[in-house]
Amino acid sequence: MKLAIGLVSFLLAIMAAAQTQTISNDATYTVQGATPKREAVLRRQIQVMQPSVLPYRIRFVPHWQYVYAAKMYHLHVPSGMGSKMFTHLPSRSVFVDEDRYLGEEWLGHWMAHELGHLATNSVREEDAEKAAREYRIRLRAAAKKTQTSSQLLTNLYFTY
Questions:
Q1: 14 burial class (0-12, 13-18, 19+ CB within 10 angstroms)?
Q2: Tell me, what's the pLDDT at 76?
Q3: Confidence of residue 155 (pLDDT cuts 50, 70, 90)
Q4: What span, in angstroms and rounded, lies between the C-alpha atoms of 111 and 106?
Q5: Is-contact 63 99, C-beta < 8 A?
Q6: What is the C-alpha to C-alpha distance for residues 71 and 134, in angstroms, rounded to an integer?
Q7: Are strands 85-88 and 57-61 parallel, antiparallel or unpaired?
Q8: Is 156 exposed, middle or buried (0-12, 13-18, 19+ CB in 10 A)?
Q9: CB-CB contact of 117 with 128 (8 Å)
Q10: Domain holding 149: CATH number?
Q11: Which residues are 88's β-sheet partners?
Q12: Is pLDDT above 90 for 30?
């Protein structure tokens, strides 16, 4: 009975998050529960990373729902590590703990790791990190390029 009540609560919370879902023609995945700004940042980061496998959905959920999903999917967290984001490989879903969100740079760093799990189709952290290295290199190169472009524009603006 407790499981049924918990499952209904979980599904109701997901349905609320799904109402904010945005489907874009430029990608084959949905982002649920994120603010429009956060979704735009995430989509830009994923586009820059060019992962070999895209998730079907990325869900930003409150902490209680994140903990519940982690238990339902039997998430194994290595000792000494915390979890603020995880990937459920069979459904190609990425869950992000909204209450522990730490900014755009954090999002890109750890989304690269989760996309690494999808690219390698492996639950092993080492495999995911190996794939994530390439994605993070692409993110840093894009950030450096953007920073250089904005510095050029600033210099042009102040010289005239």
A1: middle
A2: 75
A3: low
A4: 8
A5: yes
A6: 30
A7: unpaired
A8: exposed
A9: yes
A10: 3.30.2010.10
A11: 93
A12: yes
Does residue 150 sit in helix, strand or coil?
A: helix
The residues near 117 (Cβ < 8 Å, ≥ 6 apart) are 87, 89, 123, 127, 128, 131
Please give the residue range of the domain that contains residue 105. Answer: 2-159
- Number of domains observed in the structure of the chain: 1
Question: Which uninterrupted H or E stretch holds 66?
Answer: helix 63-72
Question: How far, in Å, are 13, 36, 115, 144 from residue 20 at the CA level?
Answer: 12, 9, 23, 32
Among 11-15, 27-31, 57-61, 152-156, the range of highest mean pLDDT: 57-61
| C-alpha dist (Å) from residue 45 to 65, 105, 109 | 25, 10, 10
| Averaged pLDDT of the chain | 80
